[in-house]
Amino acid sequence: MGPTDRMRILVIAVGSVWPTLLATIDGVRGIDPGVLDVTRIFRTSRLRKLFKVLLPAASPLILAGVKTSLAFSIILVVVSEMLASTAGIGYFISSSQQYFNLPSMWAGTIAMGVLGYLLSEIFFTVERRLLAWRDDA
């Protein structure tokens, strides 16, 4: 696909979707079989079963997967900018390193760390609100 924006977006999407997908599968598989039997006995519709049983039961693991995907996507953004871009923090860090401009390189690295920290804190706030119904949230 060449060093285009489309390629970078594809790399980030493909690289970061797997933790969420695998955590979702694990969360749905971990649901108590007795709960699924009850939905079968009461002939619950598929849509109601999905939104009232499966998603609430699997949501802690789904959000854990999204948290991991967030970290992967930040890493992939920086790496894709370092390798195939002429703009962005990753490019700034890489070009600063090539020209031995160490203060700029460290400034870019610290900026990425702060950005990652802020995104993580925003996600933790959203996660606490979404999982407020849990006792151990």
Automatic annotation (TrEMBL):
Tell me if Cell membrane is a UniProt keyword of this record: yes
Subcellular compartments: Cell membrane
The entry's keywords: Cell membrane, Membrane, Transmembrane, Transmembrane helix, Transport
Q: Which residues cross the membrane?
A: 72-93, 105-126
What organism, scientifically named, is this protein from?
Answer: Flexivirga alba
Protein name per Swiss-Prot or TrEMBL: ABC transporter permease
Q: Does the keyword Mitochondrion apply?
A: no
Q: Which domain of life is it from?
A: Bacteria
Residue ranges of domain ABC transmembrane type-1 in the record = 1-127
Q: Which Pfam families does UniProt cross-reference here?
A: BPD_transp_1
InterPro entries, A to Z? MetI-like, MetI-like_sf
Q: Give the chief site where it resides.
A: membrane
Membrane topology, as annotated: Multi-pass membrane protein
Q: Which family does it belong to?
A: Belongs to the binding-protein-dependent transport system permease family.
